[in-house]
Amino acid sequence: MSAYNNIFGTPSEVLSGLAASSLVHGEALSTLKSLPAESVDCIITSPPYWKQREYEVSEYHSSLELGNEDQPQQYVAKLAAIFHAAKRILKPSGSLWLNIGDKYHNKNLMGMPWRVALAMQDDGWILRNDIIWDQMKGTQSPKDRLRDVYEHIFHFVKSQKYYYDSDSIRIKPDKLPSENGNGIVSATGVSGVKYKQQIAESKVLSEMEKQKALEALEETLGRLRNGELVDFRMTIRGAQRTYHGENGNISGRAKELEERGFFIMKSSAKGYIPSDIWRIVPEDKWRKDTHCAVFPEELLLNPIKATCPNHGIILDPFVGTGSSVAAALRMQRRAVGIDLSEVYLATARKRISEMAERLNTLPLLF
Ligand SMILES: C[S@@+](CC[C@H](N)C(=O)[O-])C[C@H]1O[C@@H](n2cnc3c(N)ncnc32)[C@H](O)[C@@H]1O
Asked: Could you tell me if 110 and 237 lie in one domain?
């Protein structure tokens, strides 16, 4: 029988492997202070934005709710204190992903995400990426400014060396090289024959440069044959049109072309690393009956894959409807979520139980 026999348990049951997840009804700062140091691998969260929304917290808790502060500085200070407490709980190899939205106040765009990010840097966090989440929203029509369509997702770490599985998030090539009787051709049909001819017939390359260019081309074709590369393009001095300005500010490739007479651009079979602009439509299934900005699960895939090892532990101190916990379980990680609102936690519990049922009992996942 699997160790994670229970879907829900206490945080310490999650940490010791007796439960897969825990949904804690409580305030973020005080709950974080009660958790053990260096116990989670990855924090993913989206706090309430400043003066943006009203969440369904009970009367009793409403004074603890974040986002209602009069001044932006008060909001920033509170959040920085919460993430300071979260830093203690994060393992030295851990990551924190923070999604946060901005706010116009008296027509003035407040720059809230960066205010928070700078306060966290001042507190010792290392900022590794500022991801622009392009939400592709189309409905607002302001009369005196442009539509806003993005939010920030900041990736912070605690130390210079941290867990990051970059291979797990590479975008894999959709076409592979093939054989065509005469040898290998790249994913887009490049065999190298034309380049060999251009090198041989070149009037601008020296004999030495020709030899080096042919060797490099053979080496590239070898890597294509053994599956390391899927594609390549060769640029040979005098043979291909190149586009670089006359301003003396020569790029690395142009310099290579000038000095060696050629360069080769290669596409690795491992795929390429995603960029820091993510185009993901916001979730609408779980927010129908709430006012809460719900994470689309797609948004959570890369943070979890890259920065939480298999069977590792994820923490979300503003878990809302439980998106981060659901995504963690789906990806065979354990998770602890905290929220002030019982209403949202009830939605989270229902959502996660339904998911576990759909996936034919959660323990089988692990
Ligand atoms: C933007 S929502 C999070 C949504 C979540 N990412 C999801 O996918 O459903 C922010 C959440 O923070 C909660 N909240 C507000 N103040 C809090 C506090 N001081 N401590 C813990 N949770 C709080 C709200 O109840 C709300 O559920």
From this structure: no
Does one domain contain both 183 and 165?
Answer: no
CA-CA distance, 35 to 21, in Å (whole number)? 14
Is residue 70 in a domain?
Answer: yes
State if residue 339 touches ligand 1 by the CB under 6 angstroms criterion.
yes
Q: Determine whether the shortest distance from the Cβ of 321 to ligand 1 is under 6 A.
A: yes
Count of the separate structural domains present in the chain: 2
Pick from 318, 344, 355 the residue to mutate for probing ligand 1's pocket: most ligand atoms within 8 Å of its CB. Answer: 318
- Are 215 and 66 members of one domain? no
Of 97, 92, 96, 86, the closest CA to residue 30 belongs to 86
Tell me the residue range of the domain where 208 lies. Answer: 178-268
Q: What is the pLDDT of residues 70-103, one digit of tens each?
A: 899 999 999 999 999 999 999 999 999 999 999 9
CA distance 131 to 277: 6
Q: Using a 6 Å cutoff on CB, does residue 344 contact ligand 1?
A: yes
Residues 257-283 have pLDDT tens digits of 889 999 999 999 999 999 999 999 987
CA of 24 to the centre of ligand 1 (A): 12
- Of 225, 244, 268, the position where a domain reaches its end is 268
CA 167 to chain centre: 13
123 and 160 belong to one structural domain: yes
pTM: 0.86
Q: Is the CB of 8 under 6 A from ligand 1?
A: no
